[in-house]
Design a protein that fits this description.
Layout lengths: L16 H14 L12 H8 L3 H13 L3 E4 L3 E4 L4
Antiparallel strand pairs: 1-2
Length: 84
C-alpha cells in the first residue's frame, strides 16, 4: 500500500523516509549540484519542499553528517564539506 511517488523517491522504493531523503540529498552533493562550502536549505524549507516532517529532515541530515558529507554549525546552518 504505497501512495504516489514523492519528489525524493520517484521510483517509489520502500524504506524509511529519512533514509530515502538522505539518499536524495546526497545525490545533490555527489552530482555537484551543491558544491563544497555551500549551505543547504534550512530544515523547515526542506520539510516543506519535500512534504516531510522536520524530524525526517533532521534524521536525513544526521545521516549526511555521519557520512562526512555535511557539517552543521550552530546558528549558521548545514554546509557541504566535500563532494561524495
Amino acid at each position: 500500500m504505497s501512495g504516489p511517488a514523492k519528489k525524493y523517491n520517484p521510483d517509489n522504493k520502500t524504506g524509511y523516509e529519512y533514509e530515502l531523503l538522505a539518499e536524495h540529498l546526497a545525490g545533490h552533493i555527489e552530482r555537484g549540484e551543491w558544491a563544497p562550502g555551500s549551505r543547504l536549505p534550512g530544515e523547515r524549507a526542506l520539510s516543506e519542499e519535500y512534504g516531510v516532517a522536520l524530524d525526517t529532515v533532521r534524521k536525513a541530515t544526521q545521516i549526511l553528517r555521519d557520512r562526512g558529507l555535511v557539517q552543521t554549525l550552530k546558528s549558521k546552518g548545514t554546509f557541504v564539506t566535500r563532494q561524495g
